[in-house]
Design a protein that fits this description.
With 435 residues, the chain is an all-alpha fold. Helix content is 80%, strand content 0%.
Length: 435
């Protein structure tokens, strides 16, 4: 015989075990679609620079494109608080329905925008505005999907199942990279600049509709339903309940730093880096980046499972050490070109997976159900706003100002060191029941 609490936890685990596929697939496929939308901008950055900014200075136009990329992240902390607060009050499912709808419509609108040649300075301003809407929607997606899956998953499989969130994000990036590569191969540079670049943005509407239909068929998590039964007036949920957790929020922010810099440097900025610094063609640079994405997707569930076995903290801290010791040598290898670049990108993908395969699980376990979505959304999106969205711009600026093509490696190493120090302040969260 067990206590009522133990019996309740056992029932929750059994219920989650028997209904895993539908919520995991629903959260992951929607996340993949949203990040396909978001990634298309990064992969088409060099063309967007030509379409939306004044001609003449290629570097200035590219910096402008990445500045718009970074500015769209300004709204992410606001969106993280907004979606997190309402996700903790009205439920994860309803929030995820809203985010995918807004994201798809905003991305579709980018595909309809006229360029600089037609409307002048209004073109980059319109682009910036719609990118901010994208950022607002995306700020609720990752935290919402992770919280949704985490609250369905049994504790012994939580790391493995929540790793599907970053895996689906990378799948969206891969889809975007493949589509842009196909367009580059079959279309002339003139056709790509004229209309080809619009295709990934325009197909966001039917893709988003498909993801929306899936999410409409989901139910909210058993953990959240229990919370609603205990606190039907929702007075102690969301933003107003965060005050006791400010110390943990600061630590979580430090932990997010490596993901923010690493994800957007390695998976978003890398095609541009290969083209501008290593001398690859647009098509070659995008295709070879698929090695990183493929490695990342394959290794993520392995890392998630490992974290279920040995703990989240050990895996995350080991990854920080690997980044500090090996990022610079990997960038040296990357500069050699050919198969050496393929190997280097494989290693970068593996290093990043070591962090991202555990981070989402760790963040969901750090906070209780009443503030889980809010705290995850706030820390993750603030870190990504300050250090993720700015990563392509900072990398481009550091190279231009120092003349050192390996400057992004040192930026990654610094982020890993800060993450390591933050992790020292935490306790292990594996094998705990979500409260």
């Amino acid at each position: 015989m067990g206590t009522p609490e133990m019996i309740n936890n056992d029932n929750r685990s059994e219920q989650a075990e028997s209904h895993l596929f539908k919520p995991v697939f629903g959260a992951a496929i929607g996340n993949m679609i949203e990040w396909f939308d978001y990634a298309s901008y990064g992969y088409l950055a060099t063309i967007i620079a030509l379409v939306f900014f004044a001609p003449g200075d290629r570097t200035a136009a590219l910096l402008g494109t990445f500045a718009v990329f970074a500015v769209s992240f300004i709204v992410r902390p606001i969106g993280g608080i907004f979606w997190g607060h309402y996700g903790d009050k009205i439920g994860r499912r309803r929030t995820l329905i809203y985010t995918i709808t807004i994201m798809s419509l905003a991305t579709f609108t980018i595909g309809l925008l006229p360029g600089y040649a037609k409307i002048g300075v209004w073109a980059p301003l319109a682009l910036m505005l719609i990118r901010m809407v994208q950022g607002f929607a995306a700020s609720g997606e990752y935290a919402g999907s992770a919280s949704f899956i985490s609250e369905y998953a049994p504790k012994g499989k939580r790391g493995l199942l929540v790793s599907m969130v970053p895996a689906s994000t990378a799948a969206g990036l891969m889809f975007a990279a493949l589509l842009t590569s196909i367009l580059d191969y079959y279309l002339s540079p003139g056709a790509m600049q004229s209309w080809g670049w619009r295709i990934p943005f325009l197909i966001a509407l039917p893709l988003g509709f498909g993801g929306l239909m899936i999410r409409l068929r989901l139910e909210d998590t058993p953990v959240f339903k229990e919370l609603e039964e205990k606190d039907p007036e929702d007075e102690n949920r969301g933003l107003r309940a965060l005050k006791p957790y400010w110390g943990k929020l600061l630590i979580a922010f430090g932990i997010v730093l490596l993901n923010a810099v690493g994800f957007y440097t390695i998976l978003s900025y890398m095609p541009t880096y290969l083209m501008e610094e290593i001398g690859f063609s647009r098509l070659h640079g995008t295709l070879i980046t698929l090695v990183t994405l493929f490695t990342y997707v394959l290794i993520l569930p392995l890392i998630g499972h490992l974290a279920d076995l040995v703990g989240r903290k050990k895996v995350l801290m080991t990854t920080c050490i690997v980044f500090v010791l090996f990022t610079y040598p990997i960038f040296l290898l990357l500069s050699q070109g050919g198969l050496w670049s393929v190997l280097a990108l494989f290693l970068l993908g593996a290093c990043l997976a070591g962090n991202d395969g555990v981070l989402a699980t760790f963040l969901t376990e750090m906070f209780p159900t009443s503030v889980r979505f809010t705290s995850f959304g706030l820390t993750f999106n603030t870190g990504n706003a300050l250090f993720g969205g700015t990563a392509p711009f900072v990398a481009t600026f550091l190279i231009a100002s120092t003349g050192n093509m390996f400057a992004p490696a040192f930026y990654l190493m610094a982020a890993a060191a800060i993450c390591f120090v933050a992790l020292l302040q935490t306790t292990e969260t594996a094998h705990k029941e979500l409260s």
